[in-house]
C-alpha cells in the first residue's frame, strides 16, 4: 500500500510539542489537525473534502436522515452541515428532499454517485487507520481506543457540570 505523507504545510506534532512534554491537552488538537490533513490527502481524487466522507459512511447503510440528525451526529453547528450538504448536493453525491410525513424536515440520502463512492471512502478509512496506528500492536490499538473513548466520555460528562476543580 502506497500511503502518501501529510502535505508539507502540515505542522508536525513533534515540532509543536517539543517544549510541552507531559501535557496532553495541546496534543489533542495537534493530533486532530494531522489526522484531518492525512484524511484530506487520502481523499484526493474522490471529489470529497475531509468530513464529507463521514456522511457517505453514515448514509450508505441507513435510511434517509434529517439534516438536524446529521448535524447532531457530526457534532457541528447547523450552518456547517448546511454548507457541507450544499456542496455535496451540487457535486451530485447527496440529495435533499422534504419529508412527506413532516414537511419541516429535510431528509438527506445518497445518490447513485454517492453510493458509488462508498467503496473508495471505506478504503480511505482503512488506509487512514493503518497510517494512524502504524507501529502499534493490536493490544496497543485496543488500549488507545479505550483511552480515547474514556477521554471523550470525561469531556462530555463534564460539560454540564458546575463543579470546577479549584
Automatic annotation (TrEMBL):
InterPro entries: HTH_MarR-typ (IPR000835), MarR/SlyA-like (IPR039422), WH-like_DNA-bd_sf (IPR036388), WH_DNA-bd_sf (IPR036390)
Residue ranges constituting the HTH marR-type domain according to the UniProt record: 24-153
Recorded GO MF terms: DNA-binding transcription factor activity
Gene Ontology BP annotations: response to stress
SMART domains: HTH_MARR
Domain of life where this protein originates: Bacteria
Protein's UniProt name: Winged helix-turn-helix transcriptional regulator
Amino acid at each position: 500500500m502506497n500511503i502518501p505523507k501529510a502535505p508539507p504545510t502540515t505542522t508536525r506534532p513533534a515540532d509543536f510539542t517539543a517544549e510541552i512534554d507531559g501535557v496532553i491537552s495541546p496534543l489533542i488538537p495537534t493530533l486532530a489537525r494531522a489526522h484531518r490533513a492525512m484524511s484530506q490527502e487520502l481523499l484526493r481524487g474522490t471529489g470529497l473534502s475531509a468530513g464529507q466522507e463521514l456522511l457517505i459512511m453514515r448514509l450508505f447503510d441507513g435510511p434517509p436522515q434529517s439534516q438536524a440528525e446529521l448535524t447532531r451526529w457530526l457534532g457541528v453547528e447547523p450552518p456547517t452541515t448546511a454548507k457541507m450538504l450544499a456542496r455535496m448536493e451540487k457535486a451530485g453525491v447527496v440529495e435533499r428532499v422534504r419529508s412527506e410525513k413532516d414537511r419541516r424536515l429535510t431528509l438527506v440520502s445518497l445518490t447513485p454517485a454517492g453510493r458509488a463512492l462508498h467503496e473508495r471512502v471505506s478504503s480511505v478509512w482503512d488506509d487512514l487507520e493503518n497510517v494512524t496506528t502504524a507501529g502499534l500492536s493490536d493490544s496497543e490499538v485496543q488500549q488507545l481506543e479505550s483511552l480515547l473513548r474514556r477521554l471523550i466520555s470525561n469531556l462530555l460528562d463534564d460539560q454540564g457540570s458546575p463543579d470546577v476543580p479549584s
